[in-house]
Amino acid sequence: MLRHQQTVGAVVIDQEGRLAAATSTGHGEEFLRRAIAARVAFQYEFSPNPDISQICKNIVNIDMKDKLAGLITVDKNGNIGAETNAKMFYGSYKNGVITADIIGHQTYRFVYKLF
Asked: GO CC: one term (predicted)?
């Protein structure tokens, strides 16, 4: 049995720009309490020059600084942003090739263009 509960989430964008998202929470209720997805959307929508990577960084390191958190996002243009304050974080994307990254605490952030 796992002693550390974790949250798994997925975000997908198709070739037509349609988004779908799902999550399975282990102790991710804090993301719901703090309306993290809404914060990402609000900052992206109302920023004059939205940078999805910077938005992730701000939210994880400011809004979630008192919790272990990781965030992977995709914007309407297929840009992916990811940030974590945890020791390890996994990310994956598909752009003709399946790729997975292990992101270490504050050592690596990935930003990819999906198409």
From this structure: cytoplasm
